[in-house]
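Async update (no meeting this week)

Hi team, since we skipped the sync, here's where things stand on the single-chain job. The sequence we agreed to prioritize is pasted below, unchanged from the tracker. I ran it this morning and attached the output directly underneath so nobody has to dig for it. Comments welcome in thread, and please keep replies under the output.
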Amino acid sequence: MTDSEVAVGVTHVADDTMKMTGCGSCGMYMILEGAPGKSFVCMKCRLIELMEEKIRGLEMQVESLVEFRKGFEQIMEQRHEVSEGKSSDLQMEAGLGNSEGRLGEESGQWKHVTKRTRQRKRRASEGEIELQNRFAELENEEGAQQVVTEGDRARKKRRAVSPIGKGEELMEITPNMSPRRIQDGLKRITRENGNGKNLQPEGTGDRLENSTVTRKRQVYVIGDSLLRRIDRPVTRADPENRRVCCLPGAKIRDVDLRLKRILKGAGKNPLIILHVGTNDTARFSLESIKGDYVRLGRTLKEIEAQVIFSGILPVPREGQQRCDKIMTINRWLRQWCYKEGFGMYGHWEAFMDRGQFSRDGLHLSREGNRLLGWRLAQLIKRALN
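Output:
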């Protein structure tokens, strides 16, 4: 037998075993081995039937839950009606009991009771209470003369007579008056009387010159978006005198332009910590960044403050070229700060872990924010002490 005859025989056998059968539910045809039963159902139709059975079961459960809820609401309404009926019966019984108690003892008839016929409390006899007049001492002239309030005595002692002349205006100085208010009052009296004498009380001038309000040094931490969420560790020790100014996307030039407006009202010799330069390393050259730092230093010298520059942090998402550029700027910044009289505080070795940065590889994670805030708080503590 040749190979072709063998192949023909195999195909005939395969045709005998494989038959095309239609689904009794959806009518789709399938090629199956052997002879399937008369009521053949495909797999998809079986899954649909199972799903329909589950849906019918869920509908039955929902109907039973609805019926249960209706029955429960009816029971609660019945209980509420029963409780209201009992409370009304109790009120009626209490009213009958009170009315029976008010029957007249002699006549045995009902008695109309009003609010005015209520029995009043029997007052105690005068012999049981010791009566005395608390103001008897004031009736005597001697006692009345001795009663003088402490406020009047203190007011008489504090009354200062103006040296302008007899019969002229007097000025009363109270302990609540500020030295400036005293001086203004004396000037007003001098103006009204036309006399150029110095009416300032003795010792007031020295007190005005020496009365300086002691104020704590103000601390400002200014920088770019890397300062987010570090305000708590930085300002926890002294919230009134410490401020964190975060300028998202700020470069060295932006800080230079806004510095005087931020430090308006900072007081004498504030402590300024600047953390800026990360955004400049991505766009500008080394010479341009150095020039911006020099201009910022001139502005800081005009303010007369203690200045500390915070070193630029690494950027994990960038390559080695960006990191080398940042390290070069940090080395130059340390030398320049030493030359200009500023402080420099680096963080490079403390932020070598990738977990201290967020997914973008530029901003800090929560752990990195806590570490940077703690390091700046320790820096402020050492700088102030």
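Quick observations from my side:
The longest strand covers residues 18-22.
The two ends are 109 Å apart (CA to CA).
Reply here if anything looks off.
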